Amino acid sequence: MGLKVLSVASEAAPLIKTGGLADVAGALPGALAAHGVDVTTLVPGYPAVLAKIGKAKAVHKWDALLGSPARLLAAKLGEHALLVLDAPALFNREGGPYGDASGRDWDDNWRRFAAFARAAADIAGGAVKGRGFDLAHVHDWQAGLVPAYLRLAPPTGGCAVPSVITIHNMAFQGYYPADIFAHLGLPASAWTVDGVESYGGVGFLKAGMQFADAITTVSPTYAGEIRSHEFGMGLEGLVLARSNRVHGILNGIDTREWNPASDPHLAAHFTAARRAGRSKNKRAIEQAFGLERGDGPLFIVVSRLTWQKGMDVLAEVLDHLVGIGGRLALLGAGDGEIEARFRAAAARHPARIGVRIGYDEGLSHLMQGGGDAILIPSRFEPCGLTQLYGLAYACVPVVSRTGGLADTVIDANPAALAAGVATGIQMNAVNDSALAMAISRACALYHRPAEWKRLQTNGMKADFSWDASGAAYAALYRQLLEEQG
Description:
Blueprint: E1 3-8, H1 20-33, E2 37-44, H2 47-53, E3 57-65, E4 68-77, E5 80-86, H3 88-91, H4 109-124, E6 135-139, H5 145-152, E7 163-167, E8 175-176, E9 197-198, E10 201-203, H6 204-211, E11 214-217, H7 220-225, H8 229-232, H9 236-241, E12 246-248, H10 277-289, E13 298-305, H11 311-316, H12 318-323, E14 327-334, H13 336-348, E15 353-357, H14 361-370, E16 373-376, H15 386-392, E17 396-400, H16 403-408, H17 414-419, E18 425-427, H18 432-446, H19 449-461, H20 467-484
Parallel strand pairs: 1-2, 1-6, 2-5, 6-7, 7-11, 11-12, 13-14, 13-16, 14-15, 16-17, 17-18
Antiparallel strand pairs: 3-4, 4-5, 8-10, 9-10
Helix pairs in contact: 1-20, 4-5, 5-6, 10-14
């Protein structure tokens, strides 16, 4: 008999997406189905989600979910079960999932996602008739209170189920002032350092890490990194204390959505054996970004333009990139000052640097399918998906050696090149000189066609599907259920 798992996430592709969390939440049901796990996904009822599911059956209601009326709607996420928490007072508002149209976080995010977590704990614990679950798998701080509710305030008459929390990015912790604690519906005993209290306030992610039966990160290297002060972001002590419960499971990619042989967003399809179509995609990128043709490599960036992603450092070396014959097509948005620096670089180097501020899913596919190399100089990167897309699409990753980037890209050092196993270029530090050197290495390799083609071929032949990761999650679930008895 298959396991029944409730996956709780604040976003899931293709319904609502701001980053990699959505891709993972959207892909997990399919990834786990092959391993005997039946996943139902729970997401908030944002306007975009409600519009996409259309008419849906209400299967449960709360008269006062942390003070707000709410309904639970049943729908489908592809071929798999979907539940949507329809709480208009909390989620029916213009803007993004977490903030208004200007990017400012909603002041009541603590209440919105505490209510979401409370509903998830009720559902996982059996409060909805006919919908029982063996385990809850929750993602990031927005669902962080689910394990705390399950452990400390389970639904009346419900059953205890184990929980797993996945940390997609330790930098986002859901930290709020202490005075919200009284409104969470948790017992007074939860207000301790071994409970939900964190540095004098309430820590949503911390609560999940404290009470979940297992903690996973989205790459093995990141599981080790968060034990340190540099990457633990103040929670490294808790990670160390629960180190026997911390597991690193690398994200996969949806190979149906990201397949260069059939991707509808490409100007031309291609495979590892026949890559001629990439040149047509490259021409399409040049046209889209107003770039002139050149003999050097076309670098691409598809990223949030933030400090974490190392975009401030990249902005400093763009003159060098152009000076050695490279060109750049950039798609992203983020910090206003960094955006301005890229716009200024494009003005300095017309037809050599093209910048699109914003995000466009179809264009991002085209860029992977025609760019020569993708730049990912992140200061920390729990997993990263863009380098995996790059590998699958023969767009050679140029990355910093951290987190999932270190786990997925094999540096083109002399030994790896001689052995024929290299897939990209790594750098040890995130600073001007290290990035400039990595870009120079990429340019030099690009002008050695045999070696460059080998990098591309190795990347395309690597398996970053969800097969292995799905098996690892399924094994972890079964281990927790055996422990529970």
